[in-house]
Amino acid sequence: MDKSKRKTIIAGNWKMNKTMSEALDLTNQIKPLTNGADCEVVLCVPFTNLETVINALKGTDIKVGAQNVHFEHSGAFTGEISVGMLKELGVQHVIVGHSERRQYFGETDETVNKRAKSALQGNLMPIICVGELLWEREAGITEEVLSRQLKLSLAGIPDNDITKVIIAYEPVWAIGTGKTATSEQAEQACKFIRLCIEKLYKNELADSLSILYGGSMNASNAEQLLAKEDVDGGLIGGASLKALDFGEIVKAASIIV
Ligand code: PGA
Q1: 12 in any annotated domain
Q2: Does ligand 1 come within 6 angstroms of the Cβ of 237?
Q3: Which CATH number do you get for residue 45?
Q4: Which of 235, 241, 242, 248 to mutate to test the pocket of ligand 1 (most atoms within 8 A of CB)?
């Protein structure tokens, strides 16, 4: 295993926050703090802010992602957004299967798989989220849960597409709760995820896949988490809404690269 082979990625997940003018303000604050970083920076913003943020980031290396995508190209799916719609705007990444989508919007491993495949077909990089609930960790079945989520979410994704997939390990009990997984817990789970990928794909593909940790990552714990061998970046919720904090996390990732 060689961490330096892998891309370090810091992705902000703004969730349902920021109106268009607020998004522009935040982007303009984040830009000077993260531009030229030694890691890949992605801002996953609400659909309504995509165009504004993409325009504001023109000429920088910062990428813009969406937080969900539908698996059909077009049709009678009121309220949904397709891969083609995102691509035409200049979106490059999309979060798929976030635990909030699973918890509140009926997302299942099957729909995660469909969305991921559709994103890949349209050349969007899916950030596929997996993670256990608190009771599952307490019952000692974290690995079983991760293994099932990965197997089902990645079903039918061929070798040449897995190189475009990013996995985010987000223990549900750590999301938005201020309860971060210890760096050891994060490492253990990310290492296990890599082992699962190794079983499903060739070793070198597992070795080059970026696995992010998400769940209350912030400016003070980022360095410790990111220093771990199998933690290749972060998916940041709350702290990505504060430019200075997000900038500090990007700085911590850049030091480690
Ligand atoms: P958090 O969210 O950093 O606020 O815990 C992470 C996420 O939900 O992606």
Answers
A1: no
A2: yes
A3: 3.20.20.70
A4: 235
